[in-house]
Every structure is written in structure tokens, then in C-alpha cells.
Write a structure and sequence with these properties.
The protein is α/β, with parallel strands linked by helices. It is built from twelve helices and 18 strands. Bound molecules: flavin-adenine dinucleotide. This is FAD-binding domain-containing protein.
Length: about 400
Amino acid sequence: MGEVAMDDYEVVIIGAGICGLATAVALQKKEIKSVVMERSEALRNITGAAIGIRQNGWRALDQLGVADVLRRTGINIKRERIVGLDGGKQQEMPMNGETRCLRRKDLIDTLYAALPPTSVKFGCELESIKLDPNTTKPVLQFIDGSSITPKVVIGCEGGKSIVANFLNLKPTKMFPLCGVRGLSNYPNGHPFDQEFARFRKDNNLVGRIPMDNNLVYWFCAHPYFPKDDRIWEDPEAIRQSTLALLSDYPQEVKEMIEIADANSLSFTHLRYRAPWDLVRGTFCKGRVTVAGDAMHVMGPFLGQGGSAGLEDAVVLARNLAEKGLDNAEEAFNLYVKERRMRVVRLSLQTYFTGMLLGASSRLKQFMYVVLLSLIFRNSSGHVDYDCGGL
Ligand SMILES: Cc1cc2nc3c(=O)[nH]c(=O)nc-3n(C[C@H](O)[C@H](O)[C@H](O)COP(=O)(O)OP(=O)(O)OC[C@H]3O[C@@H](n4cnc5c(N)ncnc54)[C@H](O)[C@@H]3O)c2cc1C
């Protein structure tokens, strides 16, 4: 892990994904020094191609001081269009609030660049965490055999979080759905409007968002039935199996997948923390808490997981700065109180939307439509949320 002064380890963040880096940036803005421990040997900035950020996410990025740089990297999307390919009608509506799609690399690199160079330690994989019985300080054990005893620990290590296990959160679950993502470059310019288009047929959904005049981000969500194990590793297997599913989709959709950059293709079995587990889960114990996917991993059906992690970062840093490191326990309780119902609602809407997509019968579809319209009358109301100032 190299030579580091002990007080560098007062605040330790586990995981240098979107949420871990955003949390470090937010803390730095409040003059709280932190160190991020990342298991990879370098920034994980190439996986997942791109990410859609809605108005609520931009508000958080504004607070982190990185929004203006990032705005230059993705065009503002003006409209939503939903196309039902099995006889359903087409719906068009103006986009609610600022919406842009960013390369994940741009987002991760920009957050990283906002931090002092030594604040992320690579090659540090957390193995376990426990509380020292005498001091009640958290003791972090890493797989290289080293251990540290920071004042404060924030677990931002994603959906398979060790810190979440330490907090006794219930295990995450898998949707019966998976997601394929990719980027397609049109050297002579693409023909698409500044719109977020979604094409739905049976239990398959394809989304398409232009990022600039040439580059287009797309995703495909479909039932999970991996016939071909190569799909986890081999981009061509991802491409061919996706095309096979979408054989009766419009030519422009198939062509987009055919020309996608092989390096950008990824396949994910979608994981979530059940909304009802979020209602009662213990998200902090003493001076240990979780944020981002470690707290509330959710399906991508609303495109809100990453933005919810950015909101967490702002709220967490604000509370920690207000109460001070010596009262971190109180700060974490306030943070959890502020975040709980927000992430419960986001996760519930995401869950119903995913279950509607995967529903095997008309009756189930009807049930999820009714639940969504009863509980979430304004389907894009979640983007109006404001996480507040730092
Ligand atoms: C198909 C798909 C599409 C999506 N689309 C959108 C979208 O459009 N908009 C949106 O807002 N969200 C979207 N999301 C969700 C978004 O990608 C996640 O919510 C977000 O990336 C989570 O960030 P995170 O930092 O919490 O976790 P992660 O990105 O998982 O980062 C965790 C980090 O912790 C590290 N780590 C893990 N374990 C350890 C350990 N033991 N020790 C040290 N380090 C560790 C990992 O290497 C990683 O760097 C999508 C998700 C999927 C699957």
C-alpha cells in the first residue's frame, strides 16, 4: 500500500467508482481529507460505455463543481419517444429537465482529476471489516494482508459490497433480465434527432441516446437466458446474440448494433436491492456507512443508479461537514434518514418498471401498469429531486 501518514486514513472510502470518487470530491469541497481504496490496478473507466444523467444528477454534479466540464461532452436531449413495435402506439413527450448522456470514462476521469493525485490507492482490495472491541473503531483488512483502523469508513464498492454485508443488509437479488450496452460511431454523422428513443417488443427493450453528432449510446434489456457462456467475455458473442433477439426490429436499430465498437460492448445480469429491504435496512453502524450501489443497487430501467450515488455523495459530505468527524455516527444517521425514502421510491419505481418489462402474462403487465400509475402518477417526477447544496 506504500508509505502513507496515519491521518491520511481518517476517512476511508472503499471503491473508486462513480460514487466513491464523487464522495471524495464532495468531502474535499468541505475540506475533509479522504482516501479511496480501489481493488483494481487502475481507474475502471472503460466498462459500461456511457451513462444517462438526468436533471437530478446534474444538480449533484453542479455541487461537485464538475458539471460544466461534463456538459461539453454530451448534447442536451430534448424529447422522449417510446415506440411499441407490437402494434402499440408511439408516444412522444418533451424531456423533463436537463438530460445528457456521458461517456463513463469522461465522468470517472473528471471526478478523479478533481482530486489530489495521491487520494486514490489502487490495488487495495478490502477483504473484511470488523469493529475493534476496545475502541469501537472500524478495522479494515485487505487481501494483501495489510490492515488499517480509520476513524470513518464509507463503503462505495458496488452491488457486491463487503461493507453492506458488515451492516447485515439482506443479500441483493437478480432480475430475470439482463442488459447489453454499446457505443456506435457514425463517421459521417448519425441521422437521429436529439431524443431518447425506446423501442419495445415482447419482453425486449432497446434504448438509444445520441451523445454528439457522431456517437450514439444504446442499451438493450431482455430476459436472462444465457445459452452461450462466451457472452461474458466475447463482444462478438454479445453482438450476435443481441442481433438474434432483435431480428424483427427496425433496420436502423439493427444497423446501430452491427456497427457498435466491439470494445464498448458489455453484458450484465441485472442486480437489485429489494425496495422492501431498503425500507428497514441498517445503512450505518457506528462510523461505518454505505453509499451508491453498495446501498441501493437497482436496475437500469429509469437510468438513475449512478445519479442516486451522486446525490448520496453530496448529502453525506454535507452532513459529515456539519457534524464533524468526531460526530460521524450522528452525521451518518442524518444522512441515512435523508436518503432512505428517496432511494426506496427510486428503487420501487425501477423494480416495477423492470418487472413490467419482464412480465410473462398480460395480467402481470396490467398489474405493474396499475401499480406504477397509482404510486408514481408523474413517471418522470423523480428527476425533479434536488439533493441540495454541499
Ligand atoms: C446496464 C446498466 C445501465 C445503467 N445505466 C445507467 C444510467 O443511464 N444512468 C445512471 O445514473 N445509472 C445507470 N446505471 C447504474 C450505474 O451504472 C451504477 O449505479 C453506478 O455505476 C454505481 O456506481 P458505484 O460507484 O456505486 O459502484 P461501482 O460502479 O460498482 O464501483 C464500485 C467500485 O468499487 C471497487 N470495488 C469493489 N469491491 C471492492 C473491494 N472489495 N475493495 C476495493 N474496491 C472494490 C470496484 O472495482 C469499483 O471500482 C446502469 C447500470 C447498468 C447495469
